[in-house]
Amino acid sequence: MSEAKAKDQGEQHQAKIEAQSLQAPDAQTARLSGHVEMNRVEQGRTNASDGSLRHYQVTNQAGRKLPADWHEQNASLELQDGDVSISRANPIKESNLASHDKRNANGKAYQVYTAEASQAVQKPGEISKELTEGEYQSITKLNVQITNVPEVSPGLNPQEAIRYVGTVMDTGVAAVRQIEVHMTEPGAINHDIENTANHLKQSPFQFEKDVVGAFGGAVDKLDKPMTAEQRASAAGALMPMFFFEGGGAKPIDKAAVNQMKLDQMTAQQLKELGIERVEMRMPEVPEGLNHLELTKADPKLIKAMSTKGREFLIAEPGGELDAHLISSKAEASVFPGEGQPHIVIIKPQASKVSLLEEFLHGTQKSLGILDNPAIPRQYAEVHVKDFMLRHRRMLGLSGDDIELLEQLKQVEIEKLRLKGYRWTAL
Amino acid sequence: MIEKPLPRLLLKVKGVQDVLGKGVQVVSDITDLDVGYCGGDLVELRKPDGSAFQSVSSLVRYSLDPLLAVSNPEYSPPVSLWFGDLSKADIPIGTEIWMLVDHPVALKGRRFEYIGTPEEQP
Question: Which residues in chain B have their CB less than 8 angstroms from residue A419's CB?
């Protein structure tokens, strides 16, 4: 079914609903009310004005009763607050409000704050009269919809998203497997070099033609309307280009690693595929921090903490809790409950700093710092980092841990400042 | 100080996770929470089917990946609440969580003080 047809059907459905509403008994009564009912409503109305400006048109016959009506209209809107009354007949200025003898409804003097307008008023662009006043033409409307409305992909629910990612990965795996199988054939590389050389000999511009052709084909594919499944499949087919780009200088996506079981291959097997196994680093980490090696959370420390009213749940890789921590860019989380062990969810490879932080949030809870209504929420984050820094030796933190904690503390102080608070224990 | 009426909408549930038999964690799509809310508050859960019930909530605290947190100082994780007595079936996605109580925040404490503008005072 085309989109236009679907839209027409939707409009017909809407019109049907509206028509049904008009048939309702209260709608019938409203439509059939006569002069008597209207008069009764008018008499019951407390606001004397009818809200219309027709009386103020000089050319209007009703202009004759202007003075009395003028008064009614002016009295129709009045704001009262304490000693102050504002209406059309009694407008008030800032200077009047700011005088000390004026009190608001709470018995306090008014304060006047001013701020410069910071936003420029943008005038709307001209719209052609042919469009706004001309006769309806379905072809014009159709053209406008096509040229001016950007394509918006329909929303995906999580199940659909997983399915499409799966399709991308499956296609990608299939494409990589082809290369892998080909490379294991005897003399594959020699044959490839020979074939490539013969192919490129055809014309001095053959290489450029190939590249343009390959990209043109890919763009053509992606440019045409496709279902989500087709897009996922096309993305998967292109994926090997990115895997092997730069000789493995770019990290391979973790999901792709899991899907292709690259993590189960030896370093030598990976090398044969042109992939180098290196210690993973987050691409977002700037150069200045790349050298930092954070101490990992020791299982013995976790065990010791368990005896201090904490219950640890390990977020198993691939599980729901792990997925949530990954999406939240977190290593651990804590649920500080009332009168029961605090639940700490932690990744197996979390840092010691994160583990200590979650433990100390529990201590903050016991001390009345965390979840204290009078204390700003962001304060607890600064406080916990400040505590770790002050007790660095007792907690056995490394130089790198401390360097990072100093920076984390500054980040939290800034977040506190953005909430209007200053950290005063500097 | 702006006084806001109660009850008022705190967040809308965008995701729900079972915490391995330890209640349920709800995730919102907001990263900043109403200052008047406090962990441990009683809140009202208004389900999409129109029914509603009340429960005590806890605010989930996260330890961000430290290197990532320093590299992306503006990032905040989504606000999550934990309900120790509820299960996933009790909180369908789309449920609205409404605040029933409000708390004023102090302007000065042992290691902090308010320096914002009076009209934005919490």
Answer: 35, 116, 122
